Amino acid sequence: MKDAVPPAVQRALRARFPEALDSARRLLRQPSVSATGEGVAECAEMVRQMMAEIGCKTRMWKKGGHPLVIGELDVGAPVTLIEYEMYDVQPVGDLDAWKVPPFAAEVRTVPGVGRAVVARGSTNSKGALANHLFTWKTIRDVDEMPVNLKILAEGEEEISSANFIEYIRTHRRELRAQGAIANDYSEDLRGVPTVYLGVKGCLYLTIWSRGNRTAGGPMEGEIHSSDAVWIASPVWRLLQALDTLVDEDQRPVIDGIWDEVRRPAKAEVAMVRRLAKKFDPKTWLREGKVAKFKYDLPKVDLLLRYLYEPTVNICGIHSGYVDHGGTKTILPHEAYAKVDIRLVKDMTVGGTLRKLRAHFAKRGFGDLRIDVHGPYGPARTDPTSWIARAAIETVEAHGKVPEVWPSSGGTMPAFAFDEYLHLPWVATGLGHGAHAHAPNEYASIDGMRRFIAAEATLVYTAAKRGKAVAK
Questions:
Q1: What is the pLDDT of residues 118-175, one digit of tens each?
Q2: How many angstroms separate the CA atoms of 84 and 70, rounded?
Q3: CA Rg value for the chain
Q4: What is the dihedral of CA 152, 158, 163, 166, to 10 degrees?
Q5: What is the dihedral of CA 75, 184, 273, 267, to 10 degrees?
Q6: pTM of the shown model
Q7: What is the enclosing helix (H) or strand (E) of 435?
Q8: 272 in a structural domain
Q9: Whether residue 118 is found in the same domain as residue 228
Q10: Phi-psi bin for 269: left (phi > 0), alpha (psi -120 to 50), beta?
Q11: Do residues 231 and 315 share a domain?
């Protein structure tokens, strides 16, 4: 399939790639940790300036929290795309586990990958953000931009996307478009890219157990552990409550949670069977540095569980004395767990939360406090939509055959495209990166070259395919 990008643009993208790499590394050197606020305001301004350099009308918008950076580029084209971006990153975690400073954006050789930028946010997802802005600026320098862009770069993807969701909910008229893109580096270690047509939802919770008059336990502070013989422990109470949420295989058993889970349709099962022919479980395990799956199942069944089943996951538990080394014998007065529940199609945030509260109350754990953090539901795109076809054609134009996934097991606020804008959307992209949320996160430099080339192809392909929808 012939690349739709004019030769002059292709040459410029190749010749200017050192500028693209410098731009990505510069952005990665600016911290933007949404959980703590470190560097977020400064990074937002950097992103706004980069959008302005393309010729976008820019502004920031927020109702508390971290700003959404908005860039609008209207070139009078028939087709308009909403481009989803994020500039926030996860905390760096254990500094001792990093081989380089997490915000130095150093270039290192990664075994089996080659030269890569190692930095927090390199693959999730400031590398792609910088690459996108470079691509669109280069196109404008050399040619006419083939589509209008409405760029939404959020600074809260890692903590709830509150401003992004609220902006879309309240600005539907301004966000009229033909489709939405949420592209990132998607190639695995084999060089096989993915086209995602859906995501799971996420209900992120903090579940608290505290000493109280009903359940017992210390109510004002820790006490001596010798009292555990006759004083109840809020820590054990929390663990006992959490244990009721899953079975021995760690599948959810919250009362009624499976009632809303929709079984995949025949067409979806057929898509999964096609995907299974290309899916390599060993590569998946190797990239995640995981020994094995928890189920010994054929590929089709593994994929069906991954794509169409909910999960209840404990992200962390905290209580009492947790310092390394030494001892301190106490009975803590409180404990909390960070829990995420992944939602699949037809599950709702409100319905799932009600079922969880009822489940706890029925078992005598109604005193546990549940804090909810920025939940959002699942989303799906029709595989026959014009934007899905444009994404697949783009990947094929670069000599790749993508794995087309009906959904990702992960989460992003794509439900807003479905629920508020009624737009088809897609997530794909050439290029490779790994270790998102973990130490030594990286993005392949050669992968960045491929990503940039393919993102140029996508806007030209979208301009052609989207015309019929725009009429």
A1: 999 999 999 999 999 999 999 999 999 999 999 999 999 999 899 999 999 999 999 9
A2: 10
A3: 24
A4: 90
A5: -40
A6: 0.88
A7: none
A8: no
A9: no
A10: alpha
A11: yes
Q: What is the pLDDT of residues 343-392, one digit of tens each?
A: 999 999 999 999 999 999 999 999 999 999 878 889 999 999 999 999 99
Q: Are 260 and 174 in contact (CB under 8 A)?
A: no
- Residues with Cβ < 8 Å from 259, sequence gap 6 or more? none
**Percent of the chain's residues with pLDDT above 90:** 93
Number of domains comprising the chain:
2
Cis peptide before 125 (omega within 30 of 0): yes
Calpha distance 245→222 (Å, rounded): 27
pLDDT single digits (tens) 240-287: 999 999 999 999 999 999 999 999 999 999 999 999 999 999 998 998
Residue 275 lies in a domain: no
Question: Is residue 334 classed exposed, middle or buried when 0-12, 13-18 and 19+ CB atoms within 10 A define those classes?
Answer: buried
Evaluate whether residue 317 is within a structural domain.
yes
Kindly state whether residue 281 falls inside one of the protein's structural domains: no
Distance between CA 50 and CA 70 in Å, rounded? 11
CA distance 412 to 168: 14
Is 421 in a helix, a strand, or coil? helix
What CATH number has the domain bearing residue 351?
Answer: 3.30.70.360
Domain that holds residue 35: 7-199+378-470
Q: Give the pair of three-digit tokens for residue 428.
A: 């794909």
> Can you tell me whether residue 148 is helix, strand or coil?
strand
Task: Tell whether 192 and 210 lie within a shared domain.
Answer: no
- Boundary-marking domain end, from 340, 375, 410: 375
Structure tokens at 270: 């057929």
User: 114 and 129 in one domain?
Assistant: yes
Distance from C-alpha of 401 to C-alpha of 329, rounded to nearest angstrom: 59
CA–CA separation, 306 and 293 (whole Å): 11
State the angle between helix axes of 40-54 and 126-142 in degrees (0 to 180), rounded to the nearest 10.
Answer: 20
